[in-house]
Design a protein that fits this description.
Layout: H1 2-11, H2 33-50, E1 78-83, E2 88-95, E3 97-102, E4 105-109, E5 116-120, E6 123-129, E7 132-138, E8 141-145, E9 150-155, E10 158-160, H3 166-182, H4 186-207
Parallel strand pairs: 1-9
Antiparallel strand pairs: 1-2, 3-4, 3-6, 5-8, 6-7, 7-10, 8-9
């Protein structure tokens, strides 16, 4: 019966947004501020009708500032926000370039970079501002590059490269390698492999 119902659904053509009377809009990562405000006001109005005795909860839009539109020409600087779950390392920092360790390889971001999202792997992130280069070791996270020359980098853990103790990295690599060799369960192997990968990346960052 379920198979027959699924076939019937697949055979029925889905009406387009125009046929349904719904307004069509282009997909964009930079929603206009007016549209965001309208959506927030509509949510509050609907909430008050449904639950008039309770104040409406805050939505993510309440904590977000609207992005400035993409400039007509490429700016000279890239604006970078670099945050951790417990701290903000860089906030609206204007730099020349940032290079992040993406899972697909090293990703260099300059002003005017195309909008993209990259998953981060353990490795070195470098921030270039003139002749000054600041390097961080990041464990994992994501980089969000916007079309208006803004980049938001969110890492689970990060530390300035010059604050890492090389002897502790070597000790950690040896300990996790031993754990990996003696692991008897899939969970133990997975945890040990993560430790080996992170410490191997740390060691490469310090020696490379």
């Amino acid at each position: 019966m379920f198979r027959q119902a699924a076939r019937n659904l697949l055979r029925r053509p889905f009406p387009s947004s125009a046929a349904r009377g719904a307004p069509s809009r282009p997909f964009s990562a930079d929603a206009p501020a007016a549209a965001a405000e309208t959506a927030g006001a509509a949510f509050v109005e609907a909430w008050k009708k449904a639950v008039p005795n309770i104040d409406p909860p805050k939505t993510p839009l309440s904590f977000m500032q609207p992005r400035p539109p993409a400039p007509p020409s490429i700016p000279s600087k890239l604006t970078v926000n670099f945050v951790l779950p417990y701290a903000s390392e860089l906030s609206h920092k204007e730099v020349d370039m940032v290079i992040v360790p993406a899972t697909t390889g090293q990703l260099g971001v300059l002003p005017g970079h195309v909008a993209s999202i990259a998953e981060l792997k353990p490795g070195v992130m470098s921030v270039h501002d003139g002749n000054e280069v600041t390097k961080y070791f990041v464990s994992s996270g994501f980089a969000f590059v916007h079309a208006n020359s803004y980049a938001d980098i969110i890492a689970v853990e990060a530390v300035p490269l010059d604050q890492i103790d090389a002897s502790l990295v070597q000790k950690g690599l040896a300990d996790f390698t031993q754990k990996l060799n003696s692991a008897s369960t899939d969970l133990e192997k997975a945890e040990a492999q993560i430790g080996v990968d992170v410490h191997s990346a740390l060691n490469s960052a310090l020696t490379g």
